[in-house]
Amino acid sequence: MKFSSDYKWLKWATEIQAIAQNGLAYTQGEFDKERYHALNKIAAEILAEHSQLNKQAILNELALESGYATPKVGVRGAAFLDNKILLVKERTDGLWSIPGGWADVNYSPSENVIKEIFEETGYEARPIKMLALYDKQKHPHPLEYRHIYECILLCEITGGSLKTSYETLEVAFFAENEIPPLSLKRILPQQIQRLFAHYRHPEWPTDFD
After folding, report:
1. Which of 58, 69, 105, 139 is the most buried (most CB within 10 A)?
2. Rounded Cα–Cα distance for residues 148 and 132 (Å)
3. Longest dimension (CA), the chain
């Protein structure tokens, strides 16, 4: 979600949390640590007050974050076959997205995409080009308190066969004019349209921000 005047609270809360996390990563003083933990609680209270999230659940997640605060990275694969795009129906919300998830440690972006597509769809794929590197805060996704970069790679199907997984209810290819209801926290209709446009124009440069 791009930070408009209506969502300054989210920007403030995430900046407070980042200051707290960075402080806890570097400070040696016990009193400073107490202050940074207090800032984390304030950030969690702001997030809980303006959302449906539980304060303690937010604090539990924030406690797992350590080291210098940076955006998280997601990877997704835009795989096409016969002018149709490969989509998966997510078990978590029953809506559709292109295959993908969080970037795993010790995998490159292309290796992550190969793994995600195979695990979620049963298809083997070869990454060809990075189509987009999106800052999700600059796009109208539902609000999230994490700052996320989404890396989307163009892929071609090279083998395998269709199957679902513990993450996916259905797997199918869709033409541009028959896209099903999308999981908006993962992908937006205008982004799907942009991916089809990239597919038709391989000479286009990578989208970013």
Report:
1. 58
2. 13
3. 62
Residue of 110, 104, 117 lying closest to 168 (CA atoms): 117
Tokens at 169, concatenated = 């209810």
Euclidean distance between CA atoms 45 and 60, whole angstroms: 13
CA distance 186 to 136: 9
Q: Are residues 117 and 87 in the same domain?
A: yes
Token output for 85: 């795009």
Give the three-state DSSP class for 146: coil
Q: Who's near 129: CB < 8 A, 6+ residues apart? A: 153, 154, 202, 206
- Report the number of distinct structural domains present in the chain: 2
Range of the domain at 194: 72-208
The C-alpha atoms of residue 115 and residue 167 are separated, in whole angstroms, by 13
Residue with tokens 């800052």: 135
Three-state secondary structure along 172-190? EEECHHHCCCECCCCCCHH
**pLDDT (tens digit per residue) in 60-118:** 888 888 899 999 999 999 999 999 999 999 999 999 999 999 999 999 999 999 999 99
Out of 46, 64, 82, a domain closes at 64
